[in-house]
């Protein structure tokens, strides 16, 4: 079942907690939970998403906020790996496009390392090997999550969208379980859950309203 805003938030599907004690949404009762979803090979995640999550963690961790990191993989499966996540968390080492972009902005030390440590628990999304079968249900699920108002498109537009989804599914080696259960559109993404375990917001990209939303949830 796809997670729905306003309904109980499903637990994260984690293959391994690489940093911090194993936990999950149902173990964080009475806390507001922010889940920062990123890919190791994602420049925007390290330019915007992760620094924002760290800043929010430092400001509100003593006020009832839990921040969890989930490294996922919906592309570049050779780079967005558990091994590269472990390198990042143990010694700050970046790879691929992340290293290239951060280097251009002068945000690395020793040419490849981030100059800070992510302070909250981080786990690796559970990746499921695809079997190559492309079902209509899967096509519909992706369209529902990513193409609002699909029914209003023309027949030709619908056919084009369906074909693009098919090509995407053909290229997929794995399905990332948390990423798909929350119908995320990319990385960086944020998942925000209130003190009662209800999913309140799912965001994608740079989110300037995130901190204000968290402050309101902490006051509830």
Give your account of this protein's structure.
It contains seven helices and eight strands; from the N terminus they run ββαβααββααβαββα. Strands 1-4-3-2-7-8 form a six-stranded mixed sheet. Strands 5-6 form a two-stranded antiparallel ribbon. Helix content is 36%, strand content 19%. It is globular. It has two domains: 14-126 and 182-219, Glutaredoxin (3-Layer(aba) Sandwich), CATH 3.40.30; 131-171, no CATH class. The model has no long low-confidence stretch (mean pLDDT 94). It has helices at residues 43-60, 82-91, 96-104, 136-146, 155-171, 177-181, 210-219, and strands at 14-19, 32-38, 65-71, 122-125, 127-129, 174-176, 189-193, 199-204. It has 220 residues and is an alpha/beta fold.
Reported CATH architecture of the largest domain? 3-Layer(aba) Sandwich
Distance between the termini: 28 Å
Which class do the helix and strand fractions yield? alpha/beta
Give the SSE order as H and E letters.
EEHEHHEEHHEHEEH
Ranges with pLDDT <50 over ≥5 residues? none
CATH topology of the largest domain: Glutaredoxin
Relative strand content = 15-25%
**Largest beta sheet: what is the strand line-up?**
1-4-3-2-7-8
Please tell me what the overall shape is. Answer: globular
Number of helices: 7
Main beta-sheet annotation: 6 strands, mixed
Helix content: 25-40%
What topology does this entry show?
Blueprint: E1 14-19, E2 32-38, H1 43-60, E3 65-71, H2 82-91, H3 96-104, E4 122-125, E5 127-129, H4 136-146, H5 155-171, E6 174-176, H6 177-181, E7 189-193, E8 199-204, H7 210-219
Parallel strand pairs: 2-3, 3-4
Antiparallel strand pairs: 1-4, 2-7, 5-6, 7-8
Helix pairs in contact: 1-3
